[in-house]
């Protein structure tokens, strides 16, 4: 029981810390403790969250096609960590973004943990 309590406390602290970036662009993800609808755990974690380039996402039947670059914020600018993404995100695994951007939280470079869609874009059917 004690180990479970320590693990829960550690996850709560580490999730909030890892979701935050030096520019505070992704703070809202960690602050609200979002959880993956696909059962992949908390959105934040060691595989941080990044903002997708404008135009990298388009709605398609059943979800979203992602083809572009996701950038992770460090220090005073986009620095160092970015990756090209070409994947499909099913509509039933999508969360609502709290800003005007698409966000992808990664488990690893090939797998999204969470995918956020801005409120100005209707959810795909």
What does this structure look like?
- This protein has 125 residues and is an alpha+beta fold.
- It has one domain (2-117).
- It is 18% helix and 40% strand.
- Strands 1, 2, 3, 4, 5, 6 and 7 form a seven-stranded mixed beta sheet that branches.
- The radius of gyration is 14 Å and the shape is globular.
- The chain starts with a helix and ends in an 8-residue tail after the last strand.
- Mean pLDDT is 75; it is low at 1-20.
SSE layout:
Layout (H helix, E strand, L loop, with lengths): L1 H18 L7 H5 L17 E4 L4 E4 L2 E12 L2 E14 L3 E3 L6 E6 L2 E7 L8
Parallel strand pairs: 5-7
Antiparallel strand pairs: 1-3, 1-6, 2-3, 3-4, 6-7
What's this, in brief?
With 125 residues, the chain is of the alpha+beta class. It has helices spanning 2-19, 27-31; strands spanning 49-52, 57-60, 63-74, 77-90, 94-96, 103-108, 111-117. 18% of the residues lie in helices and 40% in strands.
The fraction of residues assigned to DSSP E strands is 35-45%
Proportion in helices: 10-25%
Strand runs, count: 7
Distance between the termini: 43 Å
Number of domains: 1
Q: Unreliable stretches, pLDDT < 50, 5 or more residues?
A: 1-20
**Tell me about the biggest sheet?**
7 strands, mixed
Radius of gyration: 14 Å
Question: How would you describe the shape?
Answer: globular
**Number of DSSP helices?**
2
Structural class: alpha+beta
Query: Overall mean pLDDT score?
Result: 75
């Amino acid at each position: 029981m004690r180990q479970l309590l320590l693990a829960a406390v550690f996850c709560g602290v580490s999730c909030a810390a890892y979701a935050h970036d030096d520019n505070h662009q992704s703070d809202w993800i960690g602050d609200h403790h979002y959880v993956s609808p696909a059962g992949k755990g908390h959105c934040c974690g060691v595989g941080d969250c990044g903002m997708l380039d404008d135009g990298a996402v388009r709605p398609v039947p059943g979800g979203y096609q992602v083809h572009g670059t996701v950038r992770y914020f460090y220090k005073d600018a986009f620095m160092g960590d970015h990756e090209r993404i070409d994947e499909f995100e099913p509509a039933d695994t999508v969360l609502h973004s709290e800003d005007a951007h698409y966000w992808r939280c990664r488990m690893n470079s090939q797998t999204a943990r969470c995918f956020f869609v801005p409120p100005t874009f209707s959810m795909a059917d």
